[in-house]
Amino acid sequence: MSGTDDGRMTALIAKLDAVLGPGGLLTARSDTDAYCTDWRNLSPGRTPAVLRPADTDAVAACVRLCVEAGVPLVPQGGNTSMVVGATPDNSDGEVVLSLSRLNRIRSLDPLDMTLAIEAGVTLKAAQDAAAAADCLLPLSISSEGSAQIGGVLATNAGGNNTIRYGNARELVLGVEAVLPDGSVFNGLRRLRKDNTGYALRQLLVGSEGTLGIITAAVLQLSPRPRQLEVALCAVETPEAALELFGRFRREDPTAVQAFEFMSGTGLDLVLALIPGATLPLEQRAPHYVLVELASGRRDGTLRGLLEDVLGAALEDGTVGDAVIAESEAQRQSLWRLREEHSEAQKRAGASVKNDVSVPVSRVPELIRLATGACETLIPGIRPAPFGHLGDGNIHFNLVQPPGMDPAAFLARDHEIMDTVGAVVRALDGSFSAEHGVGRLKPYMMPDWRGGAELAAMRRIKQAFDPRNLFNPGRVLPAEDMPAGP
Q: pLDDT tens digits, residue range 329-348?
C-alpha cells in the first residue's frame, strides 16, 4: 500500500472510530486475525480494520464512509462459510464489517407466525426464540450454533429440512439492508402476498453480500411438530437409499422432514475422530440413511408409519438394519452422527468439498460415477459423500489419501472439483447447491452460468454496486477470467 493509501486508510479509520464508539472498531492484528481466517483455513487474509456497528444506522454510516474513501467492504456473520465468502483477501485493503452486534429480536408474532430479527442473531438463538413461543423456525444447518441470520440469508442456506420447508429464501418475508450507496432498504414487511414490483428481497437473499448488507429480516415460522420420529438405517447401495426415500414419500409425503445420506467412509471418520460418537447398529454398512418424520398431530400414528415402512424394507432387503430413537437424547445422538461429518473430515486431513445438486432420481448415479472418477484421478483418495438425498443436494467431499501431503492434495483442488463437476453437469446438476460461490469458485461461473445469465448478473451488480466495493471477488469472476482453473 502506498503512502497516499496509508494516509487515506488512517483518515478513514479515524472517522469510523468516531462513528462506532467504544468496542466498535478493531485494528490490532491480535484482534482482527480471527476475522481473517475462514472456517476451513483455506485462505487466511489481512484487514486494516474490523468494524462492529451496533445498529443499522451505524452500518449505513460505515458504508458511506468506506464508499467515499473507495475502500471495499467484506460483510461477515458467524464466519462459517465453506467457500471463503466472508473473509478478506491478503491485500490488507479490504475492511471487514461484522454484524455480530446486531443481535436483537425485534418482534415475534405467534398468530402471524413471523419473527423479525437482526442479522447478528445466531440461527440457534432464533430457533430457541421461536420455540419459546411454541413455533418452529424450520431452517436447520450443522453450524447453526455460530452461523448468524444475516449470513444464512446472504448465502440462501439450505440445510436438513429443505425437503419439507424449502431453503432460506422460502422463509423470508421481508428484509432490511444497507445498499452500496449507504441508503437503507426498509423492506421488513410481514405480508404473505405483496405483488408490488420487483422482489428486491430475493435479489439480496443469496447474493453473498455483493449487492447489499442484510441487517434484519422477517422470517416465516411454522407450527411446532407434536411428534418426531428418527431412524438410522443401514443400506447396501445408494439405490436402496433412494428406494427407501420413495417409499416414505409415497406413504405420506407430508411426514418426511429430513432424509439424509451418509457413506460408510464418512461415518467411519466420524466414529474414529469424534469423541463419544457410537454406531447403534450391530455391524457397519457401506451406506446409511437418517430419516426424520414429523407431524403436528397428537394421535401417535407417526411411529406406526415409520415402523411399517421400515418393517417392509427390512423384510425385502432394501434395508439391512435399522434403529429407531426411543428418546430425545437418542434422537440427538443419531443426528450427531450426521452433523459431525464436516468436523471429522477436517480432523482427517485436507479435504476438497463439492456442494453439488442433481435431480433426486440421479443421486445414486452421482455417487457411483463421481466416486469412480475421483478414485481414478487420485488413487487412495477417500470419497465421503453425505447430505440431503431428499432434495438432491449431496456434499461430495474428498479426503486426502492417508499419508499424502495436505498441501499437495489441496493444490489439485480445481482438478478434483472439475472432475466431480463433469459428472454433475452430465446429470443436469449444479456445482453449488447451498454453500454459494464465495472466493473459491467464481472461476466456474463462466463455464456453468455464462452467456446471457452471467451477463445479466453482471448488470445487476453494476446497477447496485457500480464501484465494486461490496464483497468484490466473490460470486462473479473477473471479466477476463477464463472458464476453468
A: 999 999 999 999 999 999 99
349-426, what's its fold?
A: Alpha-Beta Plaits (3.30.70)
| Buried/exposed code over 237-247 (b: 16+ C-beta within 10 A; e: otherwise) | ebbbbbbbbeb
Each residue of 234-285: pLDDT tens digit? Answer: 999 999 999 999 999 999 999 999 999 999 999 999 999 999 999 999 999 9
What pTM does this model have? 0.92
Question: Residue 182, exposed/middle/buried by CB under 10 A (0-12, 13-18, 19+)?
Answer: middle
Distance CA 313, CA 114 (A): 40
CATH fold for domain 227-341: Alpha-Beta Plaits (3.30.70)
Q: H helices within 133-260, ranges in order?
A: 149-154, 162-165, 168-171, 200-204, 238-251
b/e 301-321 (16+ beta carbons within 10 angstroms → b): ebeebbeebbeebeeeebbbb
Closest CA to 245 of 301, 309, 305: 309
Q: Give me the residue spans of the domains in the chain.
A: 3-98, 105-223, 227-341, 349-426, 441-485
Q: Counting beta carbons within 10 angstroms of the beta carbon of residue 229, is it exposed (0 to 12), middle (13 to 18) or buried (19 or more)?
A: buried
Residue 480: closest CA among 442, 436, 449: 442
